[in-house]
């Protein structure tokens, strides 16, 4: 009886933790499968199961025809879209938070529309725009890039604006009281405080761009990105090298997050020591 009561009490006390661990486990199951399949040597491409262990997928990732070219194309588009969207989105976020102008409330509403609209709606709208402006026969790298910048922009604005809204402006006022110029105040106080939000927005933009299929498929023409390659390969059997790319992207993402957290803790310890 006592053991049963103790178990019940323990479950009640740790219920939220248990549920959280179960959700995390459920979330990571597909990732574990992707990592496992990256070491798989299948007997048939038509059956997605683990048959035998091999390192060939990692040693020769480009044996799948067209895969490495599509990955490089997605990387190029993702990086370019991230840089442009992060720059424009950060400027827009500062304007929306720090300045009062006519149409500000309407602008806040418009920012959320690309996020709230289904991707098929945004993709078809962009396609109609390109066709109407004479780019219908030139769909490819540049139309994909423009489309990705368009839908990444809203996510950058929302992320950076949330960071700016939570800033304590007394730090900037203190810097100016100590005779810092507006430029010095921005680069030495404001920008370091906002930078985590900008970095998070950039990482989110790259992930969205690299992963996008629907909008890209509508505006790509004959250009093939990595998600489009995977979709096409699925019709005739997914090559195991696709899992290598997925594993690498996951490892890089984890490394960036862990590195940022370690750097933050190091800075906190340095501040505490001083």
Structural notes for this entry:
This protein is mainly alpha-helical. It has a domain at 65-238: MetI-like fold. 76% of the residues lie in helices and 0% in strands. It has helices at residues 2-13, 15-37, 56-59, 67-98, 104-116, 119-132, 141-165, 170-177, 182-211, 214-219, 226-233, 241-273. Helix 4 packs parallel to helix 7 (141-165), helix 4 (67-98) packs antiparallel against helix 9 (182-211) and helix 4 (67-98) packs across helix 11. It is globular. The model has no long low-confidence stretch (mean pLDDT 85).
The radius of gyration computed from the alpha-carbon positions, rounded to a whole number of angstroms, is 24 Å
| CATH class category label of the domain at 65-238 | Mainly Alpha
CATH A-level architecture of the domain at 65-238? Orthogonal Bundle
What is the makeup of the main sheet?
A: none
Strand content: under 5%
Mean pLDDT: 85
Low-confidence stretches: none
The CATH topology name of the domain at 65-238 reads MetI-like fold
Number of contiguous helices: 12
At the fourth level of CATH, the homologous superfamily of the domain at 65-238 is MetI-like
The rough form would be described as: globular
Distance between the termini: 55 Å
Class derived from helix and strand content: mainly alpha
What order do the helices and strands follow?
HHHHHHHHHHHH
**Counted beta strands:** 0
Estimated helix fraction: over 70%
